[in-house]
């Protein structure tokens, strides 16, 4: 039943508790348990120096720089799970279906970091010492998924902001993991990241359904939360060591960029919610929807601009490589 006034955090949780229970049950009926150790090529491993072996040598890695950047970024993002757990527990509470979801979601997410770290350490894909140093820094800093939103809006943050954020974030992470698997050029890594991406998709569906129920319950309040989230969205890896450098590499090589963010994350979710077809917004909700539409136009323009810049950059790199190869060939035949 639609409310004619904004609801408090407690009221939202109470009104949406039945939806939460239905979606917890739906998730449990669809998810598949899996074991991280089943996705690790243990026979490829060997001891490090502390146990009589040898420490990491960059020549041992089968991953190129793009794959390394993506794997490190994705893993460090998963490592910050305690922050995400704290945030979602604070917004959802640990009561009833909400609490069951918080625990189940956290346990499932924890598998992702376990599998990815074991893979990288066993295969010597990246420097494990630097990886551990980056983990310590990133987890110590933590992550406030609503911090940037709060800086740009006068509206009090509610669980509607939280579920809107994780809806887009889970889908974005799914896209990033899936594309990372492809650039690793290793069927083992690809299979592992496909499995992780499948989890992220189911998690996204849970949050997307909660947000949809919020839109039905308090349309104006929900569209405000959604618009705030989209306008000020940041991936949870922001702030980790080398995030900007790695993010540029990932965007440049099609792992996660503005085009994918808009076309594969933001727009599919908005279409699912029928945001631009709804007729239940009040005057404030209509103004917010217009604000969202204007921002999406800006996002499209930014995506086009980025694609043009990327294409020019990749063309220059290809020309340099071609020139170097021709020079090398000429030198060899001289």
Automatic annotation (TrEMBL):
The entry's Fe cation 2-binding residues are 109, 170, 200, 203
What does the record say about how the cofactor binds? Binds 2 iron ions per subunit.
Which Pfam families does the entry mention? FA_desaturase_2
Q: Which UniProt keywords apply?
A: Fatty acid biosynthesis, Fatty acid metabolism, Iron, Lipid biosynthesis, Lipid metabolism, Metal-binding, Oxidoreductase
One of the record's GO molecular function terms: stearoyl-[ACP] desaturase activity
Q: Which InterPro entries match?
A: Fatty_acid_desaturase-2 (IPR005067), Ferritin-like_SF (IPR009078), RNR-like (IPR012348)
What cellular-component terms does GO give this entry?
cytosol
Q: Which domain of life is it from?
A: Bacteria
Identify the SUPFAM superfamilies for this entry: Ferritin-like (SSF47240)
Cofactor requirements of the protein: Fe cation; Fe(2+)
Please give the coiled-coil regions recorded for this protein: none
Question: Tell me, how does this one assemble?
Answer: Homodimer.
Q: What is this protein called?
A: Fatty acid desaturase type 2
């Amino acid at each position: 039943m639609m409310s004619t006034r904004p609801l408090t955090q407690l009221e939202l949780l109470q009104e949406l508790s039945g939806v939460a229970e239905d979606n917890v049950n739906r998730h449990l009926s669809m998810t598949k348990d899996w074991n991280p150790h089943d996705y690790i090529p243990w026979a490829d491993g060997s001891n490090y120096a502390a146990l009589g072996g040898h420490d990491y040598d960059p020549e041992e890695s089968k991953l190129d720089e793009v794959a390394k950047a993506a794997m490190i970024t994705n893993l460090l993002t998963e490592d910050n799970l305690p922050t995400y757990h704290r945030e979602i527990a604070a917004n959802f509470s640990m009561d009833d279906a909400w609490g069951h979801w918080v625990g189940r979601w956290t346990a499932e997410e924890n598998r992702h970091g376990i599998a990815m770290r074991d893979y990288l350490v066993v295969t010597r894909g990246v420097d494990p010492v630097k990886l551990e140093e980056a983990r310590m820094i990133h987890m110590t800093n933590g992550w406030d998924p609503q911090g940037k939103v709060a800086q740009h809006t006068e509206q009090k943050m509610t669980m509607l902001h939280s579920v809107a954020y994780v809806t887009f974030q889970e889908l974005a992470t799914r896209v990033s993991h899936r594309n990372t698997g492809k650039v690793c050029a290793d069927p083992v890594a690809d299979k592992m990241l496909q499995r992780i991406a499948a989890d992220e998709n189911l998690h996204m569906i849970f949050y997307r359904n909660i947000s949809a129920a919020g839109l039905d319950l308090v349309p104006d309040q929900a569209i405000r939360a959604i618009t705030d989230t989209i306008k000020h969205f940041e991936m949870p890896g922001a702030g980790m060591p080398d995030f900007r450098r790695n993010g540029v590499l990932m965007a440049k090589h099609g792992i996660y960029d503005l085009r994918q963010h808009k076309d594969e994350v933001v727009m599919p979710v908005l279409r699912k919610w029928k945001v631009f077809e709804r007729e239940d917004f009040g005057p404030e909700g209509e103004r917010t929807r217009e604000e969202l539409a204007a921002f999406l136009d800006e996002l499209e323009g930014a995506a086009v601009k980025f694609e043009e810049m990327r294409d020019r950059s990749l063309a220059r790199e290809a020309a340099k490589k071609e020139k170097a190869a021709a020079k090398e060939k000429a030198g060899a035949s001289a």
